[in-house]
Design brief:
The structure holds two protein chains of two kinds. Chain A is mostly helical. Helix content of chain A is 75%, strand content 0%. Chain B is mainly α. Chain B has one domain: MetI-like (MetI-like fold, Orthogonal Bundle), CATH 1.10.3720. In chain B, helix 7 packs across helix 9 and helix 9 packs antiparallel against helix 12. The longest helix of chain B has 34 residues. The radius of gyration of chain B is 24 Å and the shape is globular. Classes of the chains: A mainly alpha, B mainly alpha. Chains A and B meet through helix 1, helix 3, helix 4, helix 5 and helix 6 of A and helix 2, helix 4, helix 5, helix 6 and helix 7 of B. Chain B: Keywords: Cell membrane, Membrane, Transmembrane, Transmembrane helix, Transport. Chain B: Its main location: membrane. Chain B: It is found in: Cell membrane. Chain B: One of its GO terms (biological process) is transmembrane transport.
């Protein structure tokens, strides 16, 4: 009797959480454990027999050529995050505090609408603008300014990444700025603070959690982006996602090394998210 | 009489900047649209209006078979994920059990871990079980992130619901299954649909996970587009882009409308 009651109590949770849990376990948890496993097998190529465990793949990451790839990925991500913050903050501020109240929601939706379109096609669109005979050089030539090669440069990668992730930044900053207590700004002004002082001492501290969440989200997504560096960057814009891609589908074919790179990436992202959840404002994360 | 410096102060710099950024967000899309109607293949300058790229596109059997593959994957993955993701969201809101934080954390992983890592893991898994790659393996892999997104959207809708309605149904003699199907589910429908639309768009857009799990068995649209545009500008892809962007714009509009309506329903009475 007692056992039956207990089983009945378990029936609900198992029916609701079981199927999805099974799927995530099968196609997310076990695969992640598997890449951890093969990342520890030196020099594994498809079809090759495993030859004992070792940290060789992780040590390979420490070679200067691969450290440069990681440094470049971090540089792309840091640059993109800064650009998105610099461009996104004024937009989010205007949307949350200055835009006509009844249009705010609609304007926000309009700003993030491009997020719904294919990221691949958005990157591709920039090729039409940045290529040697593209729109940008056409305009420059008309203005009598020197034209140059924009495509396959670092600048093109920054443009593409910032364009892709700016809506995320605006979305998160908007959620944070919307809650800003503007009475504090008025009080600061009454007490003689300049607008700039008010901004640094009232607005920024109050929205710091949102700024942190937005920056982290943009950083993480841009550090692992594959499409933009591949389409808009040149041979010298190899980043970590392209490097991993090459270990599996490209000419290099080294699954062990590729898995080690993936593990490092998963670990770094998980640590960053854990830190944000531990020390950041949870609501600013969950609202996105 | 306003002085000059006062006038200068009236210029809404912030608004102008925001307007500029709005323009920037739509500029690339606009450029694609204009070029898709440009008769010239190579030149960036305007050579006259033409539908030829659209005609070329509609004669392209490869594009249509790729679109078909993408639609099969997206509908399949979203359809199954809608059920599993909704059940998961309800389960997470209802029950407390040891390991719940871990379960929730794992279910959120696909939202934050870069696609490339998920793609790699899935490929290694499928290879180690010697499962042949096909359209089914793509669906299985897409389900992982579709599940996560649908669960998140449904969870946020669940938080705004009145829990007493379900309790009332149970008090009035409904079985738990009846309460779920007849009381909770109808209230969740807008959330489920908008979650599904989001997952659908993400599935149609996915390049990396499809690349790793397709093998030669299927060729979803993003793979076809990627292999073509790697080598430069293709005017018929401009035309395709415009059509796809219009389609996703429509889906986004529906999703936003549903979200807006459900927010209004949830708004507390004044």
């Amino acid at each position: 009797m007692w056992l039956r009651q207990r089983l009945r109590r378990l029936l609900g949770p198992i029916a609701l959480l079981g199927p999805a849990g099974l799927w995530l376990g099968l196609l997310l948890v076990i695969p992640t454990l598997l890449i951890l496993d093969i990342s520890l097998v030196p020099g594994l190529r498809p079809g090759e027999p495993a030859a004992g465990y070792g940290l060789d793949n992780y040590l390979q990451i420490l070679q200067p050529v691969y450290l440069r790839v990681i440094a470049r990925s971090l540089y792309f991500a840091a640059g993109t995050t800064s650009i998105c913050l610099l461009l996104g903050f004024p937009v989010a501020y205007w949307l949350a505090l200055k835009a006509p109240r009844r249009w705010r929601n609609l304007l926000l939706v309009a700003f993030v609408l491009p997020l719904w379109t294919s990221s691949l096609l958005r990157a591709y669109a920039w090729i039409s603008i940045l290529r040697p005979t593209g729109l940008l050089n056409l305009v420059l030539a008309h203005l009598g300014l020197p034209t140059q090669a924009w495509l396959h440069t670092t600048a093109a990668v920054f443009i593409g990444l910032s364009y892709s992730f700016l809506p995320y930044m605006v979305l998160i900053l908007y959620a944070s700025l919307e809650k800003l207590d503007t009475r504090l700004l008025e009080a600061a002004a009454d007490l003689g603070a300049t607008p700039l002082q008010g901004f640094w001492q009232v607005t920024v501290p109050q929205t710091l959690a949102g700024i942190a969440a937005g920056c982290l989200l943009v950083f993480i997504t841009s550090v692992g982006d594959f499409v933009v560096p591949t389409l808009l960057g040149g041979a010298s814009s190899m980043n970590i996602a392209r490097l991993i891609y090459n270990q599996f589908l490209g000419p290099t074919r080294n699954w062990g090394f590729g898995s080690a790179l993936s593990m490092v990436m998963i670990l770094a992202v998980s640590v960053a998210i854990a830190l944000l959840l531990r020390y950041g404002d949870r609501s600013s994360v969950s609202e996105t | 009489m306003p002085s000059l410096s006062c006038l200068r102060h009236r210029i809404p710099w912030l608004g102008l900047f925001a307007l500029l950024m709005f323009g920037g967000m739509y500029l690339p899309i606009l450029v694609l649209a204009v070029y898709s109607l440009n008769d010239s293949r190579y030149s960036a300058s305007w050579q006259g209006l033409s539908w030829r790229w659209y005609r070329l596109l509609f004669d392209d059997a490869r594009i249509f078979s790729a679109l078909q593959d993408s639609l099969i994957v997206a509908t399949g993955a979203v359809g199954i994920s809608a059920v599993l993701g909704t059940l998961m969201a309800i389960g997470l809101s209802k029950y407390y059990f040891p390991g719940k934080a871990l379960y929730r954390g794992i279910s959120y992983l696909p939202l934050i871990v870069p696609d490339i890592a998920i793609a790699v893991a899935t490929l290694v898994f499928l290879a180690s079980l010697a499962i042949p790659l096909s359209i089914w393996t793509i669906i299985a892999a897409h389900m992982v992130f579709c599940l996560a997104y649908i669960a998140v959207v449904v969870s946020s809708r669940l938080q705004g619901l009145n829990p007493h309605l379900e309790e009332a149904a149970l008090d009035l003699g409904a079985t738990p299954a009846q309460a779920l199907l007849k009381v909770l589910l109808p209230q969740l429908t807008p959330g489920i649909i908008s979650g599904c639309l989001l997952a659908f768009v993400l599935s149609m857009d996915d390049l990396l996970i499809s690349s790793f799990t397709a093998g030669g068995g299927a060729n979803p649209l993003p793979l076809e587009i990627f292999s073509r545009v790697r080598t430069g500008v293709k005017p018929d892809i401009n035309a395709l882009s415009v059509l796809l962007i219009l389609a996703s714009g429509l889906i986004a509009a529906i999703a936003e409308y549903l979200r807006f309506r459900s927010q209004q329903q949830q708004a507390p009475p004044p």
